[in-house]
């Protein structure tokens, strides 16, 4: 990765300052021109390396209390189709394919957010009937030990 | 939370343009002035509704490798093991998740610059945590967070 891009990302990974010209503040602290920082960040967005610039919320605090990881045993030949359907649900915030290993048979992971556990369960039931798969397990988060952005 | 705060949170999740005055651009969408918006966002940060405003990074496209890891930890040791796992900067999320019939209860995500680096950290964890552990690398991303309506 380009060292200047990396320096900029490291500087802002914990958040930009909340001021009128945040990138001017960043520019002062790392000695790179504000315009160049903006241009580089927009290029990283165009390249897809940055998905977007956005707020990360404390979900619990905003009333989205329940966070369920639902794991599905999807026949390999249906993974593309089923993954796309799951991703299309607005309540599903993440949807990943992962391998089956050892005693672990579930290969599709969906994160479902709702206000309560019951709400999450209902969403999962709706998904299950759409994709016609009933071999799944919901793992609710009982305790959050860490939630940060990825560190560069 | 009041209506304007909810609207701000929803807009901020969708995204902020990367321009000289991003909050000015956002304030136009919301129909409030820039100073008010900045004050409101600072409050939302102080009160802990917002964790941060920054880049949401696609680790795969940056050439990083990531995995979800699960460990089956006895109940009375979970806090201790979780604290050990948290010490690694490469761990971004770490949750206790419980379900009937599933032995694994501590679930964390980890990403590193290379497969070697990832393996090195996982080896270190395995040396210190003597419980069954599975590593589930990210094979394909169908969706990566997040907008939900507040």
TrEMBL record, chain B:
It holds the Pfam family NirdL-like_HTH. It comes from the Archaea. Its EC number is 4.1.1.111. Residues 6-51 form the Siroheme decarboxylase NirL-like HTH domain. Residues 61-143 form the Siroheme decarboxylase AsnC-like ligand binding domain. InterPro entries: AsnC_trans_reg2, HTH-Siroheme_Decarb, NirdL-like_HTH, Tscrpt_reg_AsnC-like, WH-like_DNA-bd_sf, WH_DNA-bd_sf. One of its GO terms (molecular function) is lyase activity. The keyword Lyase applies. SUPFAM superfamilies: Winged helix' DNA-binding domain. It catalyses: siroheme + 2 H(+) = 12,18-didecarboxysiroheme + 2 CO2. SMART domains: HTH_ASNC. It is an enzyme of class 4 (lyase). Keywords: Lyase. Pathway: Porphyrin-containing compound metabolism. Belongs to the Ahb/Nir family. This is siroheme decarboxylase. It comes from Candidatus Syntropharchaeum butanivorans. The lineage of its organism: Archaea, Methanobacteriati, Methanobacteriota, Stenosarchaea group, Methanomicrobia.
């Amino acid at each position: 990765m380009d060292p200047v891009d990396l320096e900029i990302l490291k500087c802002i990974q914990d958040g930009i300052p909340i001021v009128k010209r945040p990138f001017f503040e960043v520019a002062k602290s790392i000695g790179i021109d504000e315009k160049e920082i903006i241009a580089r960040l927009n290029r990283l967005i165009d390249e897809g390396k940055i998905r977007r610039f956005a707020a990360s919320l404390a979900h619990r605090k905003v009333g989205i209390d329940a966070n369920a990881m639902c794991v599905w045993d999807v026949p390999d030949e249906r993974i593309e189709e089923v993954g796309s359907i799951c991703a299309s649900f607005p309540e599903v915030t993440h949807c990943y394919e992962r391998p089956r290993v050892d005693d672990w048979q579930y290969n599709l992971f969906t994160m479902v957010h709702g206000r309560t556990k019951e709400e999450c369960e209902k969403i999962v039931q709706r998904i299950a009937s759409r994709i016609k798969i009933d071999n799944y397990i919901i793992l609710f988060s009982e305790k959050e030990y860490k939630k940060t952005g990825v560190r560069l | 939370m009041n209506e304007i705060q909810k609207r701000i949170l929803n807009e901020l999740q969708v995204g902020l343009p990367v321009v000289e005055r991003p909050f000015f651009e956002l304030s136009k969408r919301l129909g409030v002035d820039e100073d008010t918006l900045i004050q409101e966002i600072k409050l939302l940060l102080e009160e802990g509704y917002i964790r941060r405003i920054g880049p949401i990074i696609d680790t795969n496209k940056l050439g990083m490798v990531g995995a979800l890891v699960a460990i089956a930890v006895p109940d009375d040791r979970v806090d201790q093991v979780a604290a050990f796992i948290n010490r690694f900067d490469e761990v971004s999320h770490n949750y206790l998740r419980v379900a009937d019939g599933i032995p694994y209860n501590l679930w964390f995500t980890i990403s590193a610059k290379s497969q070697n680096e990832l393996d090195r950290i996982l080896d270190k964890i395995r040396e210190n945590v003597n419980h069954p552990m599975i590593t589930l690398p990210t094979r394909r991303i169908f969706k990566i967070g997040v907008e939900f309506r507040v």
